[in-house]
Amino acid sequence: MGVGTSRTCPRPLTPDEDYGGSTDEDSPVGGKSIDDDSGCDTEDELKRVQEQHQKKHKAQKKEESDPYAGSTDENTDVEESAGGDVDLAIPELPDLFLGKHFLLYGEFPNGEHRILTRYITAFNGSLEEYMNDAVNYVVTAEEWDDRFDEALMENSNLAFVKPRWVYVCNEKQRMVPHQPYVVVPQL
């Protein structure tokens, strides 16, 4: 096979390469040595290696400029099923507040209202929008309020507790006595 008919050489030949060389010996044409056996293959290999090098170089630059380019996969010890689905069993939460009714009263700092709502709901407690006879616990971050006296007149079973009580129940994963966390009237 001649140089111009090689299937491994995808680029067209220049006029110098096609006609400019001597037929008596392999001499450099245009600064390149043409070898009928492996010339185009070698050039293809060089070109491929250069392209790979450029791709790697571009990828490295992209990684340096993109702070999120790193892997976000976490290594876990969870076994995967044959379908590739991760078998994650959601742990059963204790029913700490089952049958208990809560009212969140007053202002709470830094999204604490949302966290309290999540904990109470997660442990099967009921949240009430307004004071009613079903309420057992009034959770408040505020000091004693005169309205608390009125509420106790209506429902003597009410307990006014600090948010810390709900957090401690969550930390210990059990119902702890609420008495150490009671809001009491100021003298």
Automatic annotation (TrEMBL):
<dbReference type="InterPro" id="IPR036420">
    <property type="entry name" value="BRCT_dom_sf"/>
</dbReference>
<dbReference type="InterPro" id="IPR001357">
    <property type="entry name" value="BRCT_dom"/>
</dbReference>
<feature type="compositionally biased region" description="Acidic residues">
    <location>
        <begin position="15"/>
        <end position="27"/>
    </location>
</feature>
<dbReference type="GO" id="GO:0006284">
    <property type="term" value="P:base-excision repair"/>
</dbReference>
<feature type="domain" description="BRCT">
    <location>
        <begin position="92"/>
        <end position="183"/>
    </location>
</feature>
<dbReference type="Pfam" id="PF16589">
    <property type="entry name" value="BRCT_2"/>
</dbReference>
<protein>
    <recommendedName>
        <fullName>BRCT domain-containing protein</fullName>
    </recommendedName>
</protein>
<feature type="region of interest" description="Disordered">
    <location>
        <begin position="1"/>
        <end position="81"/>
    </location>
</feature>
<dbReference type="GO" id="GO:0005634">
    <property type="term" value="C:nucleus"/>
</dbReference>
